[in-house]
């Protein structure tokens, strides 16, 4: 067995809720004021202790005292006693019930700067009472450090969101931490705070008050994939089942919807999500309800069935781009279509995103088809936007027949399919002379969540499995089961056969986990949270282009060399390798 080896030297990054807990701040300069402000935002009760008390305090602290936000105590008026140290006598009673101590009067430039010896005594006093201390400029006297933080704006301007981020460099560069924080904030969509708050509200609506213990209802329930099927709704559903089904939907929405759409959710939209309806984007332009006068001159509606490619917006075809940006009145999008592609659609175009969650695919599909026919019947140009290529597990066939039956012949525009682009982005050639002469693409999940029959092993064939990563263990078991049975048609797969899990191919957070069929389940588990969507690539092509390459798999034809081949590729020790991010060069595209 092998799990990630911990690499010490990091901090345990926690965020504390301090409602009315006591914080003691020593010093009354601008740094003390800034610590006080952070602590006030966390609703704590603050006592500032400094030589000279209020008279020597900085303007901000004096103002906050006037506002009754905190109190300032003069160090010199604290009770002194003849026994023990000055620090012990002065601080002793103040330390009772204190949660944290911040010593700020050790900062350079402070007029009454506290010396090292006194700071050490304070540190020891607190240590003896298990009170964590931060001592400015003395890293060895710190149990915790402050992160560079940012609180995001809430849905209404001027309000604060529940979303905060903190950046730490573990004492290696405060300035740089501030800049990294600013750059992260700059990269996030500005509505991200509002999105968090809206999701919070929706979570509240998802679970009936008091009925269920909070811990039973985590959105993920400890599972590392949000793609577990949402249990079908049953007439005998209990409150808890109902609440956990709804929480699952909240998790799905949090994972897939663009931040801007989450931020713009109204309570009505949330109700629709929780009831299992489709979601309509907030912008519903007037073109959707043409006036009576325009009825007779209206053109006949059209439907385009287009593919978005695997994720990177530059992999859209020009045809799809034109349909989305120039032709569409209404875009009906699949849930998996990446936010970067949705972002290209002009804001005046209405966008609906299917609520095609596991367990709810059928309903969402029908609703989307009906919405397309309804809008096209009103003369609108409808773009049905599918992820990847519309005919690769995209139900394009059903839609073509449905639209045709309603008098609309859709234009089907192919897209770059993840089945081919996924391997390429992972450095794996789907076919390769000397390694893989054929390619099979299949799904890991059958209709209505049933098992599928996977193809048997062929040395010269690459197998790409879509929609199977959430059920990885079952898929691998079917490939390795010596008895073919109903789950596999043909030869059993060798244990050491290379496999790659390619997640979010072509997106900035792309991740590739490579291993063998024997170890892949543990490899993926050890890599942390899954990042849907993901696919599997199975076969010798997975190692063909690694390093200096190995393209003799078929020519050598010596299967006993295979273990050596795998060891050369993966190394002796761990049994897998994880690669993060896009291949070099894609940032320029
Ligand atoms: N029509 C799509 C496939 C739809 S099925 C296409 O041609 O790509 C959905 C499955 O596609 C997902 O479960 C996943 O297996 C795969 N998939 C889609 N986009 C992906 C991506 N960017 N990276 C990895 N897998 C992806």
Automatic annotation (TrEMBL):
<feature type="domain" description="Siroheme synthase central">
    <location>
        <begin position="162"/>
        <end position="185"/>
    </location>
</feature>
<dbReference type="InterPro" id="IPR014776">
    <property type="entry name" value="4pyrrole_Mease_sub2"/>
</dbReference>
<dbReference type="Pfam" id="PF14823">
    <property type="entry name" value="Sirohm_synth_C"/>
</dbReference>
<keyword id="KW-0560">Oxidoreductase</keyword>
<keyword id="KW-0949">S-adenosyl-L-methionine</keyword>
<keyword id="KW-0489">Methyltransferase</keyword>
<feature type="domain" description="Siroheme biosynthesis protein Met8 C-terminal">
    <location>
        <begin position="238"/>
        <end position="281"/>
    </location>
</feature>
<comment type="similarity">
    <text>Belongs to the precorrin methyltransferase family.</text>
</comment>
<dbReference type="GO" id="GO:0019354">
    <property type="term" value="P:siroheme biosynthetic process"/>
</dbReference>
<keyword id="KW-0808">Transferase</keyword>
<dbReference type="InterPro" id="IPR035996">
    <property type="entry name" value="4pyrrol_Methylase_sf"/>
</dbReference>
<feature type="domain" description="Tetrapyrrole methylase">
    <location>
        <begin position="303"/>
        <end position="520"/>
    </location>
</feature>
<comment type="subunit">
    <text>Homodimer.</text>
</comment>
<protein>
    <recommendedName>
        <fullName>precorrin-2 dehydrogenase</fullName>
        <ecNumber>1.3.1.76</ecNumber>
    </recommendedName>
</protein>
<dbReference type="InterPro" id="IPR006366">
    <property type="entry name" value="CobA/CysG_C"/>
</dbReference>
<feature type="region of interest" description="Disordered">
    <location>
        <begin position="219"/>
        <end position="239"/>
    </location>
</feature>
<dbReference type="InterPro" id="IPR014777">
    <property type="entry name" value="4pyrrole_Mease_sub1"/>
</dbReference>
<dbReference type="InterPro" id="IPR003043">
    <property type="entry name" value="Uropor_MeTrfase_CS"/>
</dbReference>
<keyword id="KW-0488">Methylation</keyword>
<dbReference type="InterPro" id="IPR028162">
    <property type="entry name" value="Met8_C"/>
</dbReference>
<dbReference type="InterPro" id="IPR000878">
    <property type="entry name" value="4pyrrol_Mease"/>
</dbReference>
<dbReference type="GO" id="GO:0032259">
    <property type="term" value="P:methylation"/>
</dbReference>
<dbReference type="InterPro" id="IPR036291">
    <property type="entry name" value="NAD(P)-bd_dom_sf"/>
</dbReference>
<comment type="similarity">
    <text>In the N-terminal section; belongs to the precorrin methyltransferase family.</text>
</comment>
<dbReference type="Pfam" id="PF13241">
    <property type="entry name" value="NAD_binding_7"/>
</dbReference>
<keyword id="KW-0627">Porphyrin biosynthesis</keyword>
<dbReference type="Pfam" id="PF00590">
    <property type="entry name" value="TP_methylase"/>
</dbReference>
<dbReference type="GO" id="GO:0004851">
    <property type="term" value="F:uroporphyrin-III C-methyltransferase activity"/>
</dbReference>
<dbReference type="GO" id="GO:0043115">
    <property type="term" value="F:precorrin-2 dehydrogenase activity"/>
</dbReference>
<keyword id="KW-0520">NAD</keyword>
<dbReference type="InterPro" id="IPR028281">
    <property type="entry name" value="Sirohaem_synthase_central"/>
</dbReference>
<dbReference type="Pfam" id="PF14824">
    <property type="entry name" value="Sirohm_synth_M"/>
</dbReference>
<dbReference type="InterPro" id="IPR050161">
    <property type="entry name" value="Siro_Cobalamin_biosynth"/>
</dbReference>
């Amino acid at each position: 067995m092998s799990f990630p080896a911990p690499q010490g030297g990091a901090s345990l990054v926690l965020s504390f809720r301090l409602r009315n807990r006591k914080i003691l701040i020593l010093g009354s300069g601008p740094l003390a004021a800034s610590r006080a402000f952070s602590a006030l935002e966390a609703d704590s009760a603050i006592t500032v202790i400094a030589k000279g008390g209020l008279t020597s305090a900085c303007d901000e602290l004096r103002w906050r005292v006037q506002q009754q936000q905190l109190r300032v105590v003069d160090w010199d008026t604290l009770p002194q006693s003849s026994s023990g140290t000055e620090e012990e006598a002065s601080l002793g009673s103040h330390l009772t019930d204190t949660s944290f101590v911040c010593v700020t009067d050790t900062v350079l430039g402070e007029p009454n700067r506290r010396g090292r010896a006194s700071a050490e005594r304070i540190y020891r006093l607190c240590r003896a009472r298990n009170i964590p201390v931060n001592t400015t400029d003395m890293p060895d006297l710190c149990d915790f450090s402050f992160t560079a933080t940012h609180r995001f704006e809430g849905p209404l301007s001027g309000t604060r969101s529940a979303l905060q981020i903190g950046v730490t460099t573990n004492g290696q560069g405060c300035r740089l931490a501030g800049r990294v924080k600013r750059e992260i904030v700059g990269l996030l969509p500005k509505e991200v705070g509002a999105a968090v708050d809206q999701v919070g509200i929706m979570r509240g609506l998802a679970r009936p008050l008091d009925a269920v213990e909070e811990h039973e209802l985590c959105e993920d329930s400890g599972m590392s994939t949000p793609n577990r099927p949402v249990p079908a709704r049953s007439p005998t559903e209990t409150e808890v089942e109902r609440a956990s089904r709804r929480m699952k939907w909240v998790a799905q929405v949090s994972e897939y919807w663009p931040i801007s759409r989450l931020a713009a959710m109204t309570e009505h939209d949330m109700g629709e999500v929780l009831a299992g309806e489709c979601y309509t984007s907030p912008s519903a332009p007037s073109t959707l309800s043409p006036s009576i006068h325009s009825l007779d001159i209206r053109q006949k509606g059209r439907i385009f069935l287009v593919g978005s490619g695997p994720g990177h917006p530059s992999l859209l075809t020009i045809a799809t781009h034109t349909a989305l940006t120039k032709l569409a009145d209404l875009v009906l999008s699949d849930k998996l279509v990446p936010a970067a592609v949705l972002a290209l659609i002009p804001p005046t175009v209405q966008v609906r995103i299917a609520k095609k969650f596991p367990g709810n695919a059928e309903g969402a599909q029908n609703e989307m088809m009906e919405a397309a026919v309804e809008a096209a019947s009103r003369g609108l140009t409808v773009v049905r936007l599918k992820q990847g290529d519309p005919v690769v597990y995209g139900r394009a066939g059903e839609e073509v027949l449905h639209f045709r039956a309603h008098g609309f012949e859709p234009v089907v525009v192919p897209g770059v399919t993840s089945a081919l682009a996924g391997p390429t982005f992972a450095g794996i050639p789907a076919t390769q002379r000397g390694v893989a002469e054929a390619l099979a693409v299949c799904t890991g999940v059958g209709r209505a969540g049933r098992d599928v029959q996977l193809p048997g092993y062929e040395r010269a064939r690459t197998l790409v499995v879509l929609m199977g990563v959430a059920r990885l263990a079952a898929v691998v078991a079917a490939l390795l089961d010596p008895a073919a049975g109903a789950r596999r048609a043909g030869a059993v797969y060798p244990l050491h056969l290379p496999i790659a899990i390619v997640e979010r191919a072509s997106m900035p957070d792309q991740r590739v986990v490579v291993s063998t069929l024997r170890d892949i389940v543990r490899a993926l588990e050890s890599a942390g949270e899954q990042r849907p969507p993901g696919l599997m690539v199975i076969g010798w092509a997975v190692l063909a282009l690694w390093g200096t390459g190995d393209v003799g798999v078929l020519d050598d034809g010596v299967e006993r060399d295979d273990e050596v081949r795998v060891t050369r590729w993966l190394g002796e020790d761990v049994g897998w390798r994880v690669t993060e991010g896009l291949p070099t060069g894609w940032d320029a595209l």
